[in-house]
Amino acid sequence: MIKIFKPAILTVISLLLLQSSFGQVQKDMTVYITQKFLTYSAAVPREEIFLQSDRDEYVSGEDLWFSAYSIDRQSFKPSLNSRILYFELLNAVNRPVVQKRILIDKGFGPGQIVIPDTLSTGTYTIRAYTSWMKNFLPYNCFAKRILVYNTLNTKEFKEKLNAGNIIKKGDNNNLPKENKHRSVTLSINNSKPDILEIFVNADEKFRSENNNLFYIFIQTHGNINLVGTEKMTQDTTLISIHKACLSTGINQITIFNSNGEPVAERYNYTSVRENSFLTIHSVDSCNLRDKITLEIDQGNAASEALNSSNLSISVAPGTIYPDTMDINDYMVFGTEYGAPPLSTINGRKINDLPGEVIDSILLNVTSNWIDWKVILSDDLPHFKYRMEKEDHFLLGKLVTNDQQAVHPSELLFMCTPGKEAAFQYTRTDDEGNFSFNIHIDEGLKDIIIMPDDARLNHKIIIESSFSDRYPEPVISVDSSARSLPSDISKLSVNHQVQKIFETSAIGPPMKPVFLPSIPARFYGKPDIELILADYISLPVMGEIFFELLPDVYLKKRKSGYEISIANHVGDNLFVTSPSLMTDGVIIKDPSIIANLDPEIVEKIDVIKEKYLVGKYFFPGIVNVITRSGDFSCISLPDYMIRLPYRVIDPVWSFVSPDYSSEEMKEIRIPDYRNTLYWNPSVKPGKDGKARVEFWSSDNKSDYLLKIQGITQEGKILSFKKIIKVN
Fold first, then answer.
1. Each residue of 311-330: pLDDT tens digit?
2. How far apart are CA 246 and CA 226, in angstroms?
3. DSSP of 109-153
4. How far apart (Å, rounded) are the C-alpha atoms in residues 243 and 249?
5. In 417-501, at which residue ranges do the beta strands (DSSP E only) sit?
6. Measured on CA atoms in the order 576, 581, 586, 587, is the torsion positive or negative?
């Protein structure tokens, strides 16, 4: 059978979405498969991270500058689902030597690290992921290799053979094992300009068992391109498809039998159409300490698109190693399929690869996202890590003294010491895990976590926000002495000169996107707000309660102190034991308040009646606030843990000399910047044009200008050019 599909299939798909329920026997299998696919892709969205660094080669002790892009795999638009990027620099055995949390705002975030000067020479890997991507680690994250050279230690060079390719490879068949029918094979012919030919070969037994019927399903990065029903009348069925029906990128073609079981799969590449509207005007060469001007123009047709983009620009010496993929080529494979071997790409763009090379690559990949066994099952997968869209999640575990999980639904509290009490509670799950929400900002937070029942002597274990799941490295060690490449020797000398003259590219911190939240009492305006400065000094806390706090009692018993609140309801008197706080931190022992020196107490807040926070209620609250307000006057009880916590790290700006005046141009301080210019966020004006100016240094070299970016509409931008400094 020969059939040509046209773009009208999109209309059919829209009609399929109206189907909402299915019985045991499917009347329309294409609707069933489509709905299963759509349900899965909505429940298991795919985020991609692309990271542009200023260079690919560094000397230990240098600054590494980068821009991160978070992209939705289906739309290619900036992802708005995650606000935090987890950045790691992994050594030769894939263990972190640097870790940073960076803010991603509207799908974009700049960052900077200092490469430790103790690192030995070798290949290192940048690993970047979001909280949601932690569910799929140690694979399926952004990975890029860089080379770090230590001029004091060059005798052992550790080369990671799988660097920059932290993707688990499958067997090119993401089908349930029981459904891998050898009697059905799938092949394609992509050589025709407008038509893709798909050949389905099935033996007589398969045709008989399936009443000469099968289904075809094609998806590209989570978008359905085609769903159809086919009849078989002979060994080979030919299906011809207009390439206009296919999205650009890697097309996953799956054949299903009459029972809706996947039986064959094949991958095809539809060329990515280059975004040619981006034009860069700049000089090709210049002298030392000359002004270099970049004019970025995309023409009138896409001014709105470029105006909504963030462009990152790096100008640095070229590398002797094949250049890594730009954002346009990276997104073809992404984490869904994994980066192809660098030796196969060899610095070429994917669109420039011969068809047979692309075919050889596609024969060795499988989708890490579209898993038909999971898609067609009745249960969607459960994920531990959520998307950090509004808040950061602080995770931990409550265990017994012998490291066993506690019973589910144990209560824990998180308090932030301060004069404005902040409170959260949570409950453990079946395995003793818990989670607290923390506001995303750069401020350093003081956090105290405790269990509700301190008598049980449970232990609190805080989980690192960075994943501890790392891929197994494949390392080749060359222990023979080797001399540094000439370009690296030059980078090293330049770096040493900059250190000697104490010239640094690190400028002031960039303006934070989100300021720390303004503290506010979680219990609002208290029934009693006693400010001690308004009254005469009293020697002990007992007298303060007796003289100044009506219906609030501090009494000493044989077993210790107790604090209670009396409420009058008509002729009845109700006495309750309130929750106690000091500087907003819940305490279990009333003697802590009783033994405070009144001289350090600033005020006392009292909530006399029940107060509800979510589903947790306080029988009343007494909060004693000290002058310092930081819970420092009390020794931390054993059942509490206290930790300073910064959700995202501050980002520093890149600065370089300005030689616009003759005085600066003649200054004798040498300028040997290795990275000539770095700008993580260039935003064009309303006319869609951007202008960037910087100055060359005292270093004669060929510099690689790289521009990467993505618009809010999902248009990917990439540009490269060599500028020679004479």
1. 899 999 976 555 578 898 99
2. 8
3. EEEEEEPPTTPPSEEEEEEEE-TGGGGGTTSSSEEEEEEEE-TT-
4. 12
5. 422-427, 433-439, 444-451, 459-462, 475-478
6. negative
Distance CA 689, CA 618 (A): 58
Distances (CA, A) of 495 to 487, 491, 501, 523: 12, 6, 10, 55
- Percentages of the chain per state (helix, strand, coil), in multiples of 5: 15, 40, 45
What is the spatial distance between Cα 256 and Cα 245, in angstroms, rounded to a whole number? 20
Task: Say what angle helices 29-43 and 9-16 make with each other, to 10 degrees.
Answer: 80
C-alpha distance across the termini of the chain, in Å: 65
| 168 to 11, 331, 511, 686: CA distances (angstroms) | 36, 17, 39, 44
**138-154 pLDDT, tens digit each:** 989 999 999 999 887 65
* pLDDT digit string, tens, across residues 341-350: 777 787 788 8
Q: Which residue has the tokens 């999902």?
A: 714
| Residue 268, both tokens | 């095809």
The secondary element (H helix, E strand) that includes residue 508 is strand 506-509
Report pLDDT digits (tens) over 150-191.
887 655 556 655 555 554 555 555 665 544 556 899 999 999
Residue 35, both tokens: 């709905």
Q: Is the pLDDT of residue 7 over 60?
A: no
Whether 351 has a pLDDT exceeding 50, the answer reads yes
Q: Kindly state the average pLDDT of the residues 197-201.
A: 96
Instruction: Give residue 715's identity as a one-letter amino acid code.
Output: K
